[in-house]
């Protein structure tokens, strides 16, 4: 060895010593000195590249390594380092190539196989990533990181159970692997095991208390199990750690909504917007929260911002909220289509078998609301009336088993399952209510899907050879559009619970009538329309109604004067409708308006709005929410029901009409704003349908001041209630069964879905 060689070796040894002491700048200078005279000193190259990468200069490391490869192109160790630098620089395809070169030199390097898998994962090539991790684990069976990364790739393939097994394997080899605990929790949420997910998040947080993502995910899981107060604590912790994380403020708003603290929720949504959050559904949630408490300040400006965003294809609102904010079928369709694109992609459905010549048509009704809920109250009689000689009728319950009530699940940003279309996840079973017990008896089979993933639920329906899957929920709370995206049946139909288009190519038909969707408007709906002959809305003609006597005093109503009412939920009351109601009160002396008083703040706001329009707030009377039977009774103390736009009374209008209370409505443009008119036409009471603001107000005033005319209408309503089609459940059953037969006939004939009209009796 020459004297120069010995000096260079001494400098290299000194550099290594400094490196080990963490004195990286000094070590770097010495490595560079060595390489100026010995550019092919691979030890110096590798160590200097390591310093560059450690200090965030992967670009310098890669440049150094590439210069080295010009003279040593087959050095596997250098290719290995190139791959690491390329990973840091997000050059994933190049990283795969570098790891392939490294593995050509040393195929038994588990580190190279693992990091090759990471690069493949980042390229979205999840199956190949799993194969790469499997090679690593064959060489190093106790490699916790390889199991962890394998779990991530399996999650990318939506193989949830396999991913969970992989995370468990990582944790069994390294119980302190915080990221494995975190992603294990995320996977458990996908498997609808939220309580176990919370335990995993707790373990991740114990290992890393400052992991904001773990706290955020824990909050999401707590919301899934109906613990919004605990979720709020988690989201508050996230904000304490990362106060400028806009999505954390958005998630906090969702917890507050679940607690019905709508004003505070709006404040959180405003903070999210101020911090640049682009969370899915944010604008719609903010506006809907404001309408829940009738806070109309800047509402018009909010809607003016919402509509262009929807028209631009942005998923800024749950489509259900848009129904009550915008009276435009076109905008409602755009909202549904944008929302659909933001939903997690579903697995493609397996090929659907042709019907095997079965004589009976097998109908599957899918709903989260098989309980004391308007959808069930309206449709229970239909399920009982179906012709069992021709139809098998099967319920698929989307909520938790035997639950009486379930809080809405909401889209969450920055958390697993960031958009769940307001789907509610399983929680502990609650006692069956009377409606649930009735429904369980009314179907041929009652299947619980609450604990199954969407794809598994669809697979079960296919295995049961369901011919027609009827979605009773659409985009309402707890609905599961992912089941239909995965094709639960050869024919899929939207009906009843959601009065708008799904915007989905996998929904074949929408059941309607000529009032709610005129022929000239059906271009705004992605489904083919099945036109029932009377009203699309089923009603239970056997619904019990108490004959007990009641008085105005029982409901805190004035003893004299005219009582207008609207028992729609507060979110349906928008300024334009309220303006008209106040003008009506101003024209009818001693009249009052009786409203549903779900929220004290909403009541205060409405009284303030009345005063601003020159009407005393005392003329607004608020009634509490009460059981359905008693609710029907109190209608007898009202004189006239005033409808709202753009979202009409639906089941609420049926309640009023069944109780004998006339409903005055105004036709809107979109389906949700034409339902009351549909009901009135099916009762042969078209004189209560108006088309303009002036007509609506004049008719209400005339009926309030011309009591003889009002009494005539009430007598007609009393007679028609039991003779016209609206409340004839058996007639409705025959009509909808005819519709089912028609769409099956087309399918069996190999014809694509098309618009269908059903003639009534």
β-strand number: 14
Mean pLDDT: 92
Radius of gyration: 32 Å
Class from helix and strand fractions: alpha/beta
Do you know the CATH architecture of the domain at 552-727? 3-Layer(aba) Sandwich
The H-level CATH homologous superfamily of the domain at 552-727, spelled out, is: Glycogen Phosphorylase B
Q: Quickly count the helices.
A: 32
Percent of residues in helical segments?
40-55%
Strand order of the largest sheet: 3-2-1-4-5-6-7-14
Label the overall shape. elongated
CATH class of the domain at 552-727: Alpha Beta
Whole-Å distance between the termini?
109 Å
- Beta-strand residue percentage: 5-15%
Stated plainly, the CATH topology of the domain at 552-727 is called Rossmann fold
Which stretches of 5+ consecutive residues score pLDDT under 50? 402-409, 417-428
Largest sheet: 8 strands, parallel
Structural summary, described in words:
Helix 24 links the parallel strand 4 (468-471) and strand 5 (491-494). Among the domains are: 278-342, no CATH class; 361-532, Rossmann fold (3-Layer(aba) Sandwich); 552-727, Glycogen Phosphorylase B (Rossmann fold), CATH 3.40.50.2000. It is elongated, with a radius of gyration of 32 Å. The chain has an eight-stranded parallel sheet, with helices on one face. It contains 32 helices and 14 strands. The chain starts with a helix and ends with a strand.
